[in-house]
Amino acid sequence: MIATVKTSMRERLVAAATRLFYAHGLRAVSVDKVIEAAGTTKVTFYRHFKSKDDLVVAYLEGRALLEREGIGAAIAHGGGDAETVLRLMAEQIGMIACEPGFRGCPFINAAAEYPDPDSQVRKTVAAHRRWYKEAFASLAAPLGPERSAEIADDLMLLRDGVMVAGYLDEPDRIAASFLRSGKAVIAGA
């Protein structure tokens, strides 16, 4: 007998929002569309989320968790070897950018739609970017604290660029470019 996994209504709302927000954009998707996709009511929606922005934050936090798990696994697997970590990241980026429906980085997209840096959405984006820079800095830690912060900035810029290029350019070339560029940044340090 196959057991079914029961998901909470909050999880269903976030899952529906994740599909819709990423495919169509945050501002283009109404709460009503999310409610309809989740198969629930407005009353139920507002029991779980005070506002659409709270749902957007939950969506971004879910995406952040997935990215952090993936990058964390690459760092753990790399065992302190920055080139191995960059290769693993490049492979993942290449696979993601080649998936049907790839629309770039959900955090860059969210920042474009929420220009106010004091909004909770932008604060969530900023927190994820800080985490990414800390992860990149840990790769460069053997080069010293000053250099690791600079390298983290450079790698973040490359990561942002590859996420945009993966949407606009030929995705099959993106992974190789990220790996070459990342290695050059670290070697140049």
UniProtKB/TrEMBL annotation:
Residues 7-67 form the HTH tetR-type domain. Residues 30-49 bind DNA. GO terms for molecular function: DNA-binding transcription factor activity; transcription cis-regulatory region binding. It comes from the Bacteria. The keyword DNA-binding applies. Keywords: DNA-binding. It holds the Pfam family TetR_N. PROSITE patterns: HTH_TETR_2. InterPro entries: Homeodomain-like_sf, HTH-type_TetR-like_transc_reg, HTH_TetR, Tet_transcr_reg_TetR-rel_C_sf. PANTHER family: HTH-TYPE TRANSCRIPTIONAL REGULATOR RUTR, HTH-TYPE TRANSCRIPTIONAL REPRESSOR BDCR. This is Transcriptional regulator, TetR family. It comes from Glycomyces harbinensis. The lineage of its organism: Bacteria, Bacillati, Actinomycetota, Actinomycetes, Glycomycetales.
